[in-house]
Structures are given as structure tokens and as C-alpha cells.
Amino acid sequence: MLTIEALREYGANVDEGLARCFNNADFYLKLVGMLGNEKGFDKLEEALEKNDLDAAFEAAHALKGVLGNLSLTPAYTQVSEITELLRSRTNMDYSERLAGIMEQQKILKELLN
Amino acid sequence: MEMDKKLRHYNDIRRVVMVVDDEPINQEMLGFILKKDYEVVLASNGEEALEKIRSRKRTLSMILLDLNMPVMDGYRLLEILREDEELKYIPVIVLTAEDGAEVRCLELGAVDFIKKPYNVPSVILARVRRAIELSEDNRIIQDAEQDELTGLYNRVFFFEYASQMDPFQEKGETDAIVINIDHFHLVNELYGRIYGDQVLQAIADGIREFMDENRGIACRCDGDMFYIYCPHQKEPAAILDVIRRHLEKLPDDSRIRLRMGVYAKAAPDELMERRFERAKLACSTVRGKYIEPVACYDVSMSETEVLSERLVNDLKRGLDEKQFKVWFQPKYAIQGEQPQLSSAEALIRWDHPEFGMISPSVFIPLFENNGLVQKLDHYVWAEAGRWIASWKSKYGFTVPVSVNISRVDMYDPRLKEKILTILEENHLTPEDYLLEITESAYSDDLEQLIHIVEELRVLGFMIEMDDFGAGYSTLNMLTVLPVDVLKLDMQFVKNATSDRKNYRLVELMKDIARFLEVPIVAEGVETKEQCEILQKIGFDLVQGYYFSPPLPPEEFEKLIKKEVDRKGAEIC
After folding, report:
1. Least confident of A1-15, B31-45, B97-111, B551-565
2. What is the edge-to-edge ordering of all strands in the sheet holding B258-263?
3. Structurally, how many domains does chain A consist of?
4. What pLDDT is recorded for position B428?
């Protein structure tokens, strides 16, 4: 079961995330729980596999907004970095960075369960 | 205290705001924050949002808009809102993590930004609240500052904005311009209020078109008066051309006569109201001047204005102290062997204690404008009556005297009564007393004028049509006008000796008199040559300096005496 402590342990800036929810822990946890349905990770992966940097940027950018609002710092940091690279459509091998982000998704899913 | 008042109003209503974001987590989070103070409507893309905005356009206070969304993104929605007359007033705050998006969004009408990740709720709520307050204040100001009919500013806001923009004018060269419609009340009366409003709207459209190209601001005030404050115009009359193009779209636009006053290149420290007073003054000098409807202010206008004010203020005292003098200018019958004194015209002079003798051409128009002319007319009628009676009893002989009936007198329901009272008091008959009515008075309301004049004729009065030829009578109109004498406008006499064409014109006037079977009088006769020409053409009577200037009663009496003596000698 997802808890504030578990998120804190994960490295989330829980105080900041809670503050955005008027310190309503239930609501904050509900929002983090909605990450289970978040399509942003898969969209990013799919776009990068097709080397569609425009779509990849859009997906990364949207994901960054969500993770930032939830203050899920480890995932947010990685997504922010790839967003900046994709913003300038940097032609490079994204596989390592993508793997890191997908790892974050996995960790978060585990936390949710 | 002020703030408390404002807050109370703000808190009176639980406003509706919309969050447009395709990310459910962001949508939920922002919705949760906003629900504290607002009713929240959610949408996941621009298209869904637009539909909801349209159905809530009267109640929606704010839109919080994400940019990157499927179906329709935030930029497109901003464009649509900006172009929609009804929706463009709803303020939009853009939600973005993009620094670069700001300029484009502001250009598309966004009022503010909320960055992702979101700030703490108190900051978001404060920003939303402030944006709503500003937007509502702006709407209130827009509603209050506008003239509802034309969409131009109203007077109060116009002066405020004009003063604000003044320091920013290039080289400081600005013009205050006043545009007015001649006899607008008649337009309303003749064509109805709806048509009158259309005229005002067309003028405002023309002014707006002019301002689109030339910058400036404008307002409507005092019904049919328009003020424009703009960079200096070398050809201000061009504004009237633009306006006329808009008026041409209306039926019967040819009857709409505009006039314009310009106060050009005002000194920067001069009060805005003062500048427009001067433009207004310039505008008043071209009232009824259709060929030259534009006047630029010059200092002499102010001097004239000051003098005018003095004279208007001095009128009552002038009447009480009998500063006004009635003089008499004789009319001579010229078809006999010798010119014979036939009648006279009573003319007023003002022997002002400070300014000396003032010509009626200076003060009569002033009193015509403010309705005081009736007092003067009545004074002249009474004085003339008194003198005619005095000469009648002294010499047993009457020289009929004509008095002027002003246009405004014609609408006085007590006109007949007033004139008859004067006759009664002085034991005179209508034959002793001629009435002059200017030709242009007939163009106001022909039927009513005919009715009044006919009533006066039934009582036995002879009616002279003054300034004949200067007005707008059509030949057809002349056949129905009840007149006993035509009095040719003096301009015809002045020009009669200049060339053949003008001579023919005077002949034509005589032909008209012959056709109407009435005598014709020429006034303004100054030379022997003019007199001989008029005699040759067949004019019956002449009046003018060639025979005599207007004379004080004592001097005129000498002419009467001379006439009596001459008649006496003829009998002997």
C-alpha cells in the first residue's frame, strides 16, 4: 500500500507535494496513485523507439509536468534532463536515459502496489 | 477600508473557473486547489473546452489553460477566444513549464502564467483571484468609459485618456477637433430617433476609420457633438470626407450637414478641456456655412467670445436703460419724376456705455442663439409703434414703418396678440405697420409659416419677404408663399452693376415679383448707377445709403416734415 513514508524513502519531496494539496495526504496519495494509469512513460518509450523526437519531446514534457507537480524528484530529475535534450531535438542515443526513466516507472509502480 | 469593500464584492459570488489540461493528475490537482474558492469545470483538450466555454460564457470567470494537448492545443484555443467578440473578455491563465511560450501566449491574449510544477496553492489562488479582479475591473471600466450608442469614449474618460496620452505625442503636436451636426434636432424630428442614431453611429464609424490610420481618441458628448484628440493634421477637413463616406450609406444623407472646429498644435501645458472649448468655439463660427464647414481657432475668436459674453450679460440692463436705439432708414419710391419718401424700416442700434455704437450684425446673432432676440424685437416693435404714432398725430400723415419679425417670433403663440397690443396702445392700424419676415424662415416649416402669415394678413398687415433671393425658395414654393412685397437681398444690388449676368439676375427677380403681382424693394442701394439700373428694370422702391443711412428718429422726422411740406406745396 502506498504511504507517505514509502514516497519519502523513494526520494520524493513529499512536503512540497503535500503542500500543493493543502497537506491533504489522502488526496496526495490518490494523485500519486493515478500514476498507474499514466501513459506518458509508454508514449515516450514508443516515440524514442520510432526516433520521433517531436513526439518524444511532447511526451517527456507532459510527463515532466506531472512528476514535478507530484514532487517525485528522482523520476522528475531524469525526465527533466531528457526533456531538455529533446527540446533541442538532440540527435543522440537515448536508450540509456530511457532505460533509467523506465526503471523509475517500475519503481513507482511497485510503490503503488 | 477600500480593500475591504472590494473584497466584499469579490466574495459575494462563487465564481466559475475552468481547468483545461489533458493530464488527469494535473487537472485533478489544480481542480482540488481551486475548489476551495471556485466552482471548477474540467476539460481535457481545446475542443472540449471550447464547447464548455460557449455554454458557460455568461458565468465563466477564468480559464486555466495547458498548452500541449491533443485534438486542439492551447494556442489554437487562445486564437479562437481572441477572435470571438463574446469570449475574448474571459481571462486566460496559461499553465506551462515552457519559458519560451510566454511571449506568444501574451500576444494571443493570455493574462498570466502558472508554472509547472505548481507553486503552493495560496500563490495560485492569489494569482487567479488577481487576474479575475483585474479582468472584471477592466470590463466595468470598458462599459463605463464607452458611449453605448457609438462605442466611442464618453466625455469623462475621453478627457482622462487624452490627458494621459498627451506626454507621449511625437513632437507634442496635437489637435483638438470638434465635429457637430447642423440642426441635428431637426434630423431627429423629421426622420425619427432611429435614423438620428444611425447618423451618429455612421459618424462614429467614420471617426474610427480615421483614427485607425492616424491614431488618436474620440468621444461623443452633448448628443451630436464629437471630440477627437489626435496628432496634428495638415488637412483636418479630410476627416469629414471619411465620415461622409459612411454617411452616404444612409438614405437622405445629403441633409446631414457637418461642421468642424479645430484647435491645432495646442501648447503642452494647456488644459485639455480648454483646448476643446476653443475647438468648439471655432466650430460654432461655421454654423450653417455649408461650403466652408471647417474653422481653425484663432485668438480673435476668444476676443469675440469675451465680447459676446459681455453683450449677452449687458442686454437686460441695456433694455432697462434704453441703451438700444431704434433708427429709421427711409425707402423711396423711384418710378415717379422725383423719388418720394414711401416708408421706412425700423432698425436697432446699441449705444453701449463702454463699447459705443454697436451694429446689429454684431449682437443680433448672439441673441438669436440664446433666445433673447425676442426681447429685442419686442422693444423695437414698441419703440417703432410709439414713433409712428407720434408722427401721425403731429403731421396727420403716416409713413408706414416695417419691423423685423425673427424666425423665433413666428413660433410664439402670442405673436398676434403682442403686435395688436402695440397697435392698440398707439392707436395705429395695420396699414401703418409693415412686417418683414426673412425668406430663410420659410424653409423651416413652410406649412406652419404660411398659416401664421396668412393670419396676420387677414388682420390687414402687409408682409415683406426680407432677404429675398438669399434663401432656398424654389419657384414652386414662391407661388404658395403669402407675401405682399419682396425685398431683394442686398447682395444682388451690389453685384448688379458688375456684369451682364448679374444684371440679368436682378431683372429675373423683378420678373418673379411681376409674376407674383407684388412690388419689389431693393435694399443696400449705395450709388447713383445702382439706383438708375433698378429704376430702369422697374423696381418700385429702394432703400440704402444712396438716399439715406438709417437715421435717429429726430432726423427721420425732418424727412417726414419735408415730405409733408412738399405735398402741401403740390396741393397749393
Report:
1. B97-111
2. B217-221, B225-231, B174-181, B258-263, B294-296
3. 1
4. 93
CA-wise closest residue to B523 among B408, B402, B398, B388: B402
Interface probe for A, chosen from B19, B23, B42, B99 (most Cβ of A below 10 Å), is: B23
Q: In chain B, list all ranges with CATH 3.40.50.2300.
A: 2-145
Instruction: Check CB contact of B120 with chain A, cutoff 8 Å.
Output: yes
Report, as an integer, the average pLDDT of B230-238: 88
Q: Which domain holds residue A52?
A: 4-112
Query: Which CATH architecture describes the domain B2-145?
Result: 3-Layer(aba) Sandwich (3.40)
With the C-alpha atoms ordered B81, B82, B83, B85, is the resulting torsion angle positive or negative? Answer: positive
Select B155-297's CATH number: 3.30.70.270, 3.40.190.10, 2.60.40.1500, 3.40.50.1820. 3.30.70.270
Residue that the C-alpha cell 393670419 belongs to = B455
Residues of chain A with pLDDT under 50: none
Task: Report the gap between the CA of A98 and the closest CA in chain B (Å).
Answer: 21
On whether the CB atoms of residues A4 and A29 are closer than 8 A, the answer is yes
Residue written as grid cell 444712396? B546
C-alpha closest to that of B546 among B563, B565, B533? B533
Which candidate in A13, A18, A22 is best for mutational testing of the B interface (most B CBs within 10 A)?
A22
Decide if B74 contacts B67 (C-beta within 8 A).
Answer: yes
**Average of pLDDT values for B366-389?**
87
Q: Report the SS3 class of residue B113.
A: strand
